[in-house]
């Protein structure tokens, strides 16, 4: 447990911190399981790595760990025996005070002999370092919740678009359409549940993991459409472990998926006969930028306008990215994206903060689909006043319709 151990720990993505901690402490403090209860922190507050000590299917719970809080001095340690998953086990508990209530780390040990203080002190220092780092991430301008909302929105969109594609495919009979739809829905539900955790979206992710995640999601979409997916090498071996900023990976995944859907629409409308539909996806991380390509064998009529309608150009522009569309009639289209890795995203700020109290009230009713007359009766104001508020709401939010304003209200929890 030296300085290099601490450096390697902090350089790892937050999702790997607990695993790295367990490895770093394994030799000095042998343990079968390591558990964290991270106070009021926003990142993965309860997480377990290792082999449960109890019966098969019975795991350590947050209540087991919380019961130890009163035994540990703030920013201190405690060791002894405690009930973990219904089994009396020797444990070492470390506490850090960076998250208000205090973050606990519990090592369910394999030995009952006391851990020497010379090992406890550096272990506690590593846990303090991890909690301090996470607290810093929690206060970053790009809050984790903003990224999670954006990821969930895109996942919803991808799932619904894929389902719609199956339902529109007249070449499928009812049985095949139903089977493909069920397969898509099950996969989408599993993905959405996994995205509910912030493990992957907080700040950084490894380039190789991002490309693999993209490949998995595209296979789900294209399998249902009968399209062959070809993947280029994700990158040189020395770059797959490179950490990429979350705003870059989120944008890259979103624009590639959007382009794939645009390509599918282009192929359906322009590619006939028995020709097999194919899509090739390439992914390369350079020194200064992420480069992705989407190449199809369609009619070669995909336009930049079709991508603009799916907000591809808009998303890239937010990070200083660019795209190139090379369409060859009769042969296919290649779309290339380049996203700078040095860009920094703007803070994810609540757009509803611009609205006054009465405007927020009106917006809440809009989001519930109520008409102006009903809103006026509920708020005891005239219908013309409601129209005035609606116009101001639309103007302040920078949207063009009541529906778009209502969507923002649902997104930001005002509905």
UniProtKB/TrEMBL annotation:
<dbReference type="InterPro" id="IPR000792">
    <property type="entry name" value="Tscrpt_reg_LuxR_C"/>
</dbReference>
<keyword id="KW-0238">DNA-binding</keyword>
<dbReference type="GO" id="GO:0003677">
    <property type="term" value="F:DNA binding"/>
</dbReference>
<dbReference type="Pfam" id="PF00196">
    <property type="entry name" value="GerE"/>
</dbReference>
<keyword id="KW-0804">Transcription</keyword>
<feature type="domain" description="HTH luxR-type">
    <location>
        <begin position="348"/>
        <end position="413"/>
    </location>
</feature>
<protein>
    <submittedName>
        <fullName>LuxR family transcriptional regulator</fullName>
    </submittedName>
</protein>
<dbReference type="InterPro" id="IPR036890">
    <property type="entry name" value="HATPase_C_sf"/>
</dbReference>
<dbReference type="InterPro" id="IPR036388">
    <property type="entry name" value="WH-like_DNA-bd_sf"/>
</dbReference>
<dbReference type="InterPro" id="IPR016032">
    <property type="entry name" value="Sig_transdc_resp-reg_C-effctor"/>
</dbReference>
<keyword id="KW-0805">Transcription regulation</keyword>
<dbReference type="GO" id="GO:0006355">
    <property type="term" value="P:regulation of DNA-templated transcription"/>
</dbReference>
